[in-house]
Design goal:
12-stranded antiparallel barrel; Transporter; disordered N terminus; 361 residues; mainly beta; FApF
Amino acid sequence: MGSPFITKRILFQLIVFLIVPLSTLAQYTDVINSNRPGLSVSAYAVGKNVVQAEMGLFYEQSDHALLNTQSDLWGTNISLRYGLLFERLELNYEGTFQDQDIVYNSFDLKAKRRDFSRNRMGLKFLVYDPYKNPERNKPNLYSWRANHKFQFKNLLPAVSIYAGANFVLGDNPYYPGEPTVSPRVMVATQSRMTPRMVMITNTAYDRIGADYPEFSYLISLSHAFRNPKWSTFLEHQGIQSDRYSDLLLRGGVAYLINEGIQVDMGLGASFKNTPSRVFVNLGGSYRFDFHKDSLIPIEDQDAIGSGGPIKKNTMKKEKRKNRKSKGNGAEDIDLGPSKKQLRKLKKAQKQKKKESNEIDF
């Protein structure tokens, strides 16, 4: 017979690396899943009965070469997200209120505009999740490199659809003559390129039925550092409309204070001078967690064959090891066993093979 310690150790490793990924079957994660500091929207919902507020302040300087104008703009944006009815469905509100001072240099005139540049509400529903299958999400117990390298299967994204409406209330100077309500639809995808990198895309058709409908796309890459509390992102946005068209580039960093609070900073610019745009934003996200998981918490589960419950602190340490924060949202990611753990597993397997080859006389 092999050593009891080796047997318990192998069973413990299998429980940690096979049970932990089950938490990814649901939308809910132990760590806040924020869309900030970029504008791209994650394919995943926040989780049933989770209320999340994502807020920020921003400043923008905008100069128009043809109109010979200069503009300073201050504002605030807010996103309220709620996991409605079940894990895959999310109700969200997005609003941006801004105060803009414009100088018309050719006429030596000044003007002011103040109102909502974004005021919309909608529902997002996850229609496909490639990580629903636990076999696909299972880590490789024999190769650290296999768990951390890029694989083509990771390009297969989670897909969600969004349907909502824009609201123009009163005499809005940013949307003169537009209807009070105009529909908006969007498709959002999310791919985990590597355990530390996530790609999100949004394709939207906005202000449907208005005089100036708008088509836009967003491509965002988020990367978690070795210290998973820090992450960074790079985002590209394209906008096409008869009213306004542009190409924008954004970047920034986010820091996870704890499981329910994230702070962030971002900046960006446009690629043209009609107008040229440079902007910076600061903000944060906070989660009110009323989620009740139907699964038994890992720290309360008994270790099969260990003769007793696993200590809570040990299991929490293992969960923290597999946790990842992303700048455009955060989720629990199973990074697979470490190099040290792999060496111990291989050593235990060699010992077991050696014992099985021994002949009893």
